Amino acid sequence: MATIRKRKSGTYEIKVSCGYDINGKQVLQFRHWKPPDGMTKRQIEKELQRQAVLFEEECRKGRITASIKFQTFAEQWFKEYAIINLRPTSYERMRQTTQRVYPALGHMKLDKISARHIQAFISDLCINGKNQRNGKPLSRKTIVHHLNFISDVFSYAVKMDMLSDNPCRRVTVPKGESKEKEIYTIDEVRQIFEKLESEPLKWKLYIMLAIYSGFRRSEMLGLEWKDVDFQNSIIFVKRTSQYTKDKGIYTDTTKTKRSKRVSKFPPLIMDLLKKFRIEQRTEAERIGSKWIECDRLFVKWNGEPMNPQTPYGWFREFCKNNGFRFCDIHSLRHLHASLLIFEGVDVVAVSADMGHSVVGTTLNLYSHMFQEARVRNCDAITNALSFNKTVETEEKEETDEEAEEPELSM
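Now predict its structure.
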């Protein structure tokens, strides 16, 4: 049974007993309600009774969390859900967001956090948020990660019947300016290929394979020699190589089910793979017992799996030494997609080649490229129907020839 008490501030306190905890202490839940201006005494009494009944019903269903703070419950979420269901990389990313979320919302109780509180936090990140490493403004993607963490915690509370609503549903992240992906031009790729001729075979193969395949960096580093079918010139993507501070370098599944795929390659790439396999075996024999066999294509000097940051660092240094602009190692994947699109490959085929889980992902990432490619459709139709111009040109030429014929004198 709910009890109601009027406070000096003009608000009303509704108290409901929810039984006793394991230590025999009574568990009480409280809700405060303030009548809007203009309500009569009778209206206030009637609304108070309604609020008391609603509050008692919520308590009966266990949907009240007034006694637990966001940070406390978030840590329970990490322990009970995240560590079991999330990939280690996703788990670590969520952990990183707590550095900003906890100081802002961690001290507040779950049922006291409104959409306005969360929106104010997100808006502040958009205006004042800075990257700790380089001091640059936070990217929209990073801000979305923060909102996703808060939303996941609230969704878990709703799922556990501790809340009836997730306030994050009403929070928005400003879109900001959309930046086009930096992609190398064909001329730049030609120059890169030329300079790769004087680089170690391992890096020549890595960069060229990344462009020809469009594989993610984690997929490239997860490739093993048994994934390469030299007879049919194909490579299977079956796993990824990941890194977290806690686990170090480890093998994981592909990002999505559709990321498990097979790609065919030209003789140029297959020949490089054959040469590199011989070189790697020779190096393994040279260092003897120091070599650690893991069957990976791209490894450290002693055969251990390569750190995911190594290709990024090497390619950045390579571009700097040769005077090339640096578009990030992931831009090679975007380059691969753009080449497919501008060669007229349809979106379904591009999506499958890139290993996206749904075609919509491909359209969202490369919408501007598809739009630019569609512009050429107009030229294609015009050229296909150019017979009208041909007929008109022939008729004009015949008319001009008749006009040039001299008149005969009688």
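The beta strands are 3-6, 12-20, 26-33, 228-229, 234-237, 240-244, 248-252, 261-264.
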